[in-house]
Write a structure and sequence with these properties.
Blueprint lengths: L8 H7 L40 H14 L6 E3 L2 H9 L7 E5 L4 H10 L6 E5 L4 H7 L4 E7 L11 H11 L2 E5 L4 H4 L9 E5 L13 E5 L2 H14 L5 H11 L2 H21 L3 E5 L9 H7 L6 E6 L3 H10 L4 E2 L9 E3 L11 H6 L7 E4 L5 H15 L1
Parallel strand pairs: 2-3, 2-4, 4-5, 5-6, 10-11
Antiparallel strand pairs: 1-7, 6-7, 8-9, 9-12, 11-12
Helix pairs in contact: 2-9, 12-14
The structure holds pyridoxal-5'-phosphate.
Amino acid sequence: MKDLSAYDFSTQAVHGGTEPEPITGAIMTPVFQTSTYVQPEPAVAKVHEYSRTGNPTRDALQGALATLEGSQIPAVCFASGMAAIDSVLRLLSSGDHVVAGDDLYGGTYRLFTKILQRFGLEFTFVDMSNPINVEKAIQDNTKLIWAETPTNPLLKIADLGAISALAKSAGVWLAVDNTFATPYVQRPFEHGADFVIHSTTKYCGGHSDVVGGAVIVQDQELSDRLCFVQNSVGAVPGPWDCFLTLRGLKTLHLRMERHCHNAAGIAAFLEEHEQVERVLYPGLESHTNHEVAKRQMLAFGGMVSFELKGSLEQARQLCMETKVFALAESLGGVESLIEQPATMTHASVDPEVRRSIGLADGLLRLSVGVESLKDLQGDLEQAMAKVK
Ligand SMILES: Cc1ncc(COP(=O)(O)O)c(C=O)c1O
């Protein structure tokens, strides 16, 4: 993997992982749409022997993602963000304990509580906005701390430096799902993380056209163990998906700059709006952990959540009245999206649990895209007028 650590993020984003193709000089890594590779002699491979185990288009993507997160070891890519998360948990054994955030992506919570618990893993969910909650939850059999920051959908911020200090003194791993922030905004390794996880479906791919996931580590032994899981379980991305994600990644810095700018504008606009009860955005001074966010993030991301003062029905209706914001799950694409977590992305979380962590049924989540800020504000304004 070529070392681009001396270069700025934007140069790394454009050149990370890719070399001109040796035969034709093609500047963009081709889609190596092949399942197998012809070998010169038995048990000797030119580079790869079978595409579950390795593929050149995947190699390029794995190199690019590692470069952006600041690792010299290629990322390990998967067919989805959930497969990436599952692969990290497969490094644990029955009877091991995990301390996880209480406001995780609904699918992650479902994987932990509905599947992995059945195989003997134990979980404690805590509000990671305060590191003391993490400290109190660590047990003798704790092996892993699982953090999302900002969280989905309440945009809580965990102090990664403080939590990694706890992890180190307890001898446990810290894994950070960096999907919401992206490496443009936040580099978890600089704060002591052992694993960085992405749903590359979101900002990394960035164009709402591909599903994928990745795990990045800085330790060769951990990487070997993850590659063993990747090859043994087989939840690998196809070469075409890798190509699309790699293409998206080359403009991550440009898109993120605009996502962050637009989201900050929308958050400020909503905070001033008479129909809005509260706005959750780490860039607002009113955010509980704004100071921590300022310390560990370069900007504050493209996600904004808010509650209306009106009824639940009004919140539901607002989602259907926007014209530029599309009503859809997912996030991180160039198009702006609006959704209601309680009935959509987080419907798999028990209503009691949702209530206990402050995820109101009327909460709306915006993935603020890269359109004109004026048009996005205007769209929300006209939709609010209709539900008044
Ligand atoms: C923070 C976070 N992590 C992981 C995932 C799962 O990723 P995927 O949908 O690519 O499996 C999501 C999906 O929304 C997410 O928001």
